[in-house]
Structures are given as C-alpha cells and as structure tokens.
Amino acid sequence: MRYVSTRGEAAPIGFLDAVLAGLAPDGGLYVPSEWPSFTKAEIAAFAGQPYAKVAAAVMGKFVGNDIPAEILAEMCEEAYATFAHSAVTPVKQLGPNRFLLELFHGPTLAFKDVAMQLLGRLYDYVLERQSRKMTIICATSGDTGGAAVEAFRGRKNARIVALFPEGRISEVQRRFMTTATDDNVACVSILGSFDDCQAIVKQAFQDDQFRHAVDLSGVNSINWARIAAQSVYYFTAAVALGGPERPVAFVVPTGNFGDAYAAFVASKLGLPIAQITCATNSNDILARTFEEGRYARGAVTATQSPAMDIQVASNFERLYFEAVRRDGVETGRAFRGFGDSGLIDIPPSAFALMRELFRGAAVSEADTAKTMLSTLNETGEVIDPHTAVGVAAAARVQLTDPTIPVVVLSTAHPAKFPEAVAAACGLTPATPRATPDLSQKPERFERLPASGETVKAFVRTFAATT
Ligand SMILES: Cc1ncc(COP(=O)(O)O)c(C=O)c1O
Ligand SMILES: N[C@@H](CCOP(=O)(O)O)C(=O)O
Q1: Most ligand 2 atoms within 8 A of CB, residue of 141, 219, 285, 317 to mutate
Q2: Domain-embedded: residue 458
Q3: Beta strands 2-5 and 273-280: pairing type?
Q4: A GO term (biological process) for this protein (predicted)?
Q5: pLDDT band at residue 163, thresholds of 50, 70 and 90?
Q6: Measuring from atom 9 of ligand 2, which residue has the nearest CA?
Q7: Does a structural domain hold residue 376?
Q8: Please, what is the Cα angle at 19 between 15 and 24, to 5 degrees?
C-alpha cells in the first residue's frame, strides 16, 4: 500500500513513512494511492465481532505489509482495552430511527482517544525499530491535545508539544493536557485561534531545516493513521444497525473535517452509507460549502462547542482531491490559493460528486442549548454541546427512504463541558468513575504569541533538552 500527496508533487511512500511524515513535503496531505475495499460478505462478518478485531481488519487494509498482522491485532487489543465500555463505541437508540454513536468512553472522554490510543502504539513500534526519537507537534481546539498527551506521555521515543488557543477551550479539556507531569510533554497556550495553531503546525512542517532538526511528526488528522482508525466505528455502528444490507446515514459534528472524511473513507472501503451530514456550529464554513459549492473562510467565533470553532478544515483538501478526480495540480492550485484568498469556487462537476454523499447543516447557539435540554427531557440522555449540534442537525436530515437509520456521532462526554451543560440543562454532568480528578492538580504550560518563529524556537529548545 502506497500513499500519495493531494498536491501530487511528493514521492509515493509506505504506510509507516506516511504516519511519521505528518504533512507531505509539498504541503499536501497523504492519501492511499488507490482505495482498498471489503466485499459485502466481509463487512457482514464484522457483526458481533469485538471492536479490536474490526479495527485490525480495517487498519490492515491501510497498513499493507508494514506491520505483521498479529502485531497489528495485538496493538488494537491493547489500544481498545483502555476504553471503559466493552463495546468501545456503543450505539444507543434515541428515538425511532435515531441513534447516538458514543465515542467518548476512552481515557480523555472524546472521540480522539479512538485513534490516538492506537497511534501511540504505532509510533512505539516503528520508532523502537528505527532507534529514533521524534518531536510530535499538535494543534488542538481542546480534545486532540488531551488525547495526544495521554497517548504519548512517558513514551521514550517521542516528545509532544500541544498548542491550544488561549481562553477558547474548556477547563476540563485544558487540564487533560496541562496537568501531565511527564518530561516529554509541553503545552503551549497560543494567543490566537485554533486556526492560528494549525497554521503554525503546517508552517513548521514546511520548514525543512526545522523539520529535520527536531525530527518532526504530527498527530492531527493530517496523519493518515488518524483517519484510518476513525473509519472503524462507522463499520461497527452500521453492522449493528443492519448494514451492509441496509445503508445508514451519519450526522457528524464537524470542525477540522477529519471525522466526516473518515466516514467517506468507510464508504470508499465498501460500506453502504446513505448520507453524511456535516453539522457545524456558527463556524459554518463546511455547512455552507456543502450547500453552496464555495469553500469560503469566515472569522472564527467562540461558541459553547469550542472544539469545532474552526474555519479552515484541514481534511477538506482530501475530499477535494477525490472530487477533482485525483488531480494533484488542481488541488495544489486551489489550496495554495485558499491560503491567500480564503476562497475556493468548487468546480460544478466536483461539487456534484461531493453532493452524492455530503450535506451541511449549521446550528445556532440557541438551538444547541435547546437541543441539550430537549434531549434530556425527551430521552433522559445528557449530551455535550458538540453532540447537541449533531442531534439538532439530524432533525433536518432528509432521506429518500425514511426507514434508513440516522446515527449522530456523540463526540465528547458531557463532563468535558460542565458549564455549557449546566447553563442549558441546569445540572452538572457526572464524571465517569474511572476518570482521574484533575481539578486540583497543578498546571504546566507556556504562553506564546501566534508566531511560527516563536513557537519553533520553543520547540527546538524543548527537543534539545528532553
Ligand atoms: C468533541 C468534538 N466534536 C467534534 C469535533 C470535530 O471533529 P473534526 O475536527 O474531525 O471535524 C471535534 C474536534 O475535532 C471535537 O473535539
Ligand atoms: N477539534 C480538534 C481540532 C483538531 O482536529 P484534528 O482532528 O485534526 O486533530 C481538537 O479538539 O483539538
């Protein structure tokens, strides 16, 4: 299995090289050179299998010969044993034909743990063999950072630097990162937005001298292993609801477009998916894109679903690449141009392809709060504000066949956003018993301006001293 860049100018590489590389040297994102697939019978056979087994089968399609099958299976076993629910990502019924896919039973209570617990083990495997210590940098709007710190803290072959936007994440999210005491962890509060943090990370990857000096890697969803691992739960959810015989529709609370793109990947692998609705908060670039055919950046506004306060959705480039029929020159032109103009007019043929599967729905702050309360009143479920964006969007889903199950991804545990839940529902969500109480632990982080050069200088010093 080989990986190519969406901008077409980087040499094809194998799975483990693509994992470690993060961004491709031409600024593009790695994708498989061709799509592997499952037969219907193979997908049907996932029903009733443990999550780790399905994960090993799906990941196996992308890993190729880079990791022996029995070692990959062991990694999946270990990764998913860290989850507090035996089904790992259980499906819960909300109402007639409406379901929640709970992705928050991992150690940091958000869907990021699903991929990150596996990534920590993948890095250990490859870095140990290569006698190499890498510097991982990640941008976070709250959840990726905590999951990455949890997955990589204390590992001897990697150090991790998490950049988060100052004052724009919840206290619980911040503490999952900043209370880590391990020497290989550094957290940086950036005086800017998540988009600034992500731009700094991408800029760091494009500085060859810096990249080599610190042996840079990235665990945001630019990393193909993140996407591959996130595609697994679409299979387990679909087969639990009658797939692959009957298609399923998914509603995905969206920010950086990693999770929704992972649904697209599952469909490429052969899973029948009727529709993927990208549910956004008022940072609605993707909702507008899938309804209007223009990818047009807006200003970032702070919402009660802060992990989705994003206006530059990294993985949209991967979908665009597919929609322009894998034309790397066109993708490079469009996304380099977007860096300057903040605008891509999607060619009509590419937009038509996107609309075969994707829809967008933006949810207001008032509707998000109302949905948390109505979900509690009608179903007894306490949901977090990101999940509420998805549930509100699900009410607008229109399918030609109304019997198709609609599954909303529940991307975070409500205890991660106690203030928003209390304001909407008048109660404080209980933290799961297995989660350590971080509220009184000392925090450790730097504050830096949103300057690539300043952050790179910080990372160089950190890498040289740890
Ligand atoms: C709780 C939560 N929901 C939804 C999202 C959006 O996911 P994505 O960035 O993959 O679109 C995020 C952040 O990524 C998140 O942390
Ligand atoms: N919402 C994310 C933003 C980063 O997304 P990623 O999937 O690309 O890592 C977060 O919580 O940090």
Answers
A1: 141
A2: no
A3: unpaired
A4: threonine biosynthetic process
A5: very high
A6: 220
A7: yes
A8: 100
Q: Strands 2-5 and 30-32: what pairing?
A: antiparallel
Three-class DSSP category at 451: coil
Helix (H) or strand (E) holding 149: helix 143-152
In a domain, residue 305? The reply is yes
Instruction: Check which CATH number belongs to the domain holding 323 and give it.
Output: 3.40.50.1100
CB-ligand 1 contact for 257 (6 Å cutoff): yes
CA dist., res. 35 & res. 458, Å (int) = 39
Tabulate helix, strand, coil % of the chain (nearest 5).
45, 15, 40
Average pLDDT, the chain: 97
> What is the distance, to the nearest Å, from the Cα of residue 392 to the centroid of all Cα atoms in its chain?
20
Share of the chain above pLDDT 90, in %: 99
List the domain range (segments joined by +) for residue 410.
80-109+226-425
C-alpha torsion angle, residues 54, 58, 63, 69 (rounded to 10): 30
* Ligand 1 proximity of 264 Cβ (cutoff 6 Å): no
92 catalytic per annotation: no
State pLDDT tens for residues 39-85: 999 999 999 999 999 999 999 999 999 999 999 999 999 999 999 99
The Cα–Cα gap between 65 and 23 comes to: 22
Distance, C-alpha 354 to centroid of its chain = 20
| pLDDT band of 99, cuts 50, 70, 90 | very high
Where b means 16+ CB within 10 Å and e means fewer, 341-368 reads eeebebbeebbebbeebbbbbbbebebb
Ligand nearest to the Cα of 253, by number: 1
The active-site residue, picked from 40, 61, 112, 202, is 112
Query: How many distinct structural domains can be found in the chain?
Result: 1
- Is residue 102 within 8 A of residue 90, CB to CB? The reply is yes
pLDDT of residue 70: 98
Ligand 2 geometric centre to CA of 246 (Å): 31
Residues with CB under 6 A from ligand 2: 140-145, 220-221, 255-256, 258, 307, 314
